[in-house]
């Protein structure tokens, strides 16, 4: 060719009907291919993102060049998606490219009436409906490991149930009043979720067995998880805290109650985009009631915080966009909101 900047020719290879499948993603594909010949033009195409020149690269750091075929410009999906802050993946079974969130799989609906049926039903893509009653997780056979995603971890006075890498799971209590989940060990959380997403808890009352006493375990713990929805539920003590969240984002807590917890209502560390709506935090004691550390966009709206004897009602550090809008603080330990100038208390009252 006379113009070295324009390389025009034919190459033969394995491509998909969408073309960008294996070439752009840089993944190994095992599905039956379609062989074709494609005429392409490399014309020193430049990509700018928000005014900044972007050079896409493959997984080995080599430059990837966009090309033109039949008037259509083809760009490398993987590199471009990551530049835009989106994850990209390839599903060889369905021959699908996913950019950002994957479409939710349809959850299988299961109705259970006892804790053994509940345990058997646990897993991803499940909508578990619990018939009225009390489900004591400590009654389960704890020598049995269901899978790599559902297992037991030892704590000081027993075992704790762990749900790891679970996606699209709903636990919904049936009936007019919440269905109760309990555990007996004082050092175990009622449920611990790790690396999980799209978890919904509806019409559930959860805590430790009724007798009061010192404990370390909380009610629900979320670690490295996202898209959590807790509604119409009651989280009570003992546990130490109603919610323990670490490196978690997009949690919604609505029309629900956290009460009588022995350390405080919640401790949030490295969290993002939490919304507490139309809920109550009451009758908790001892340490920080609401502890927020290195987190952003934690919003309480139309919540009532009342009758708490915690030594500190609020502890906020290294965090931003913390708001209490249209909330009511009533009958708590002494609390001075002016000590938190970075917290927005718009429409909130203090009694």
Spans of at least 5 consecutive residues whose pLDDT stays below 50 are 1-30
The gyration radius over C-alpha positions equals 26 Å
Terminal CA distance reads 82 Å
Question: CATH class of the largest domain, anyone?
Answer: Mainly Beta
In what order do the strands lie side by side in the largest sheet?
9-10-14-17-20-23-26-29-32
Strand content: over 45%
Task: Compose a concise summary of this entry.
The protein is mainly beta. The protein has helices at 20-25, 77-83, 115-121, and strands at residues 7-15, 34-42, 47-49, 52-54, 67-69, 72-74, 88-91, 96-99, 108-112, 126-130, 134-136, 150-155, 158-164, 167-173, 179-183, 191-194, 197-202, 204-208, 220-223, 226-231, 234-236, 243-246, 249-254, 257-259, 266-269, 272-277, 280-282, 288-293, 296-301, 304-306, 312-317, 320-325, 328-330, 349-350.
């Amino acid at each position: 060719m006379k113009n070295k900047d324009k390389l025009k020719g034919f190459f033969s290879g394995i491509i998909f009907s969408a073309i960008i499948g294996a070439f752009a993603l840089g993944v190994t594909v095992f599905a039956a291919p379609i062989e074709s010949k494609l005429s392409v033009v490399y014309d020193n195409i430049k990509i700018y993102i928000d005014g900044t020149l972007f050079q896409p690269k493959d997984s080995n750091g080599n430059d990837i060049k966009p090309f033109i075929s039949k008037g259509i410009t083809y760009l490398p999906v993987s590199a471009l998606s990551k530049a835009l802050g989106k994850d990209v993946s390839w599903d060889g079974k369905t021959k699908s490219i996913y950019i950002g969130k994957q479409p939710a799989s349809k959850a299988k609906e299961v109705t259970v009436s006892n804790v053994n049926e509940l345990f058997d039903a646990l897993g991803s893509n499940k909508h578990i409906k619990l018939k009225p009653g009390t489900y004591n997780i400590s009654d389960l056979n704890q020598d049995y490991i269901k899978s790599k995603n559902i297992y037991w971890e030892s704590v000081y006075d027993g075992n704790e149930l762990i749900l790891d890498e679970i996606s699209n799971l709903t636990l919904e209590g049936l009936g007019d009043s919440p269905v109760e989940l309990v555990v007996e060990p004082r050092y175990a959380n009622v449920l611990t979720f790790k690396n999980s997403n799209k978890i919904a808890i509806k019409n559930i009352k959860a805590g430790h067995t009724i007798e009061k006493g010192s404990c370390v375990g909380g009610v629900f713990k979320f670690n490295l998880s996202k898209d959590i929805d807790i509604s119409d539920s009651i989280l009570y003590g003992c546990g130490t805290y109603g919610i323990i969240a670490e490196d978690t984002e997009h949690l919604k807590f609505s029309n629900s109650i956290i009460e009588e917890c022995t350390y405080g209502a919640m401790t949030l560390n490295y969290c993002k985009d939490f919304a507490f709506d139309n809920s109550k935090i009451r009758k908790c004691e001892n340490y920080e009631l609401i502890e927020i550390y290195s987190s952003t966009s934690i919003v309480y709206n139309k919540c009532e915080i009342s009758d708490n004897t915690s030594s500190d009602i609020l502890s906020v550090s290294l965090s931003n966009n913390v708001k209490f809008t249209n909330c009511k603080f009533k009958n708590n330990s002494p609390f001075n909101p002016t000590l938190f100038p970075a917290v927005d208390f718009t429409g909130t009252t203090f009694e």
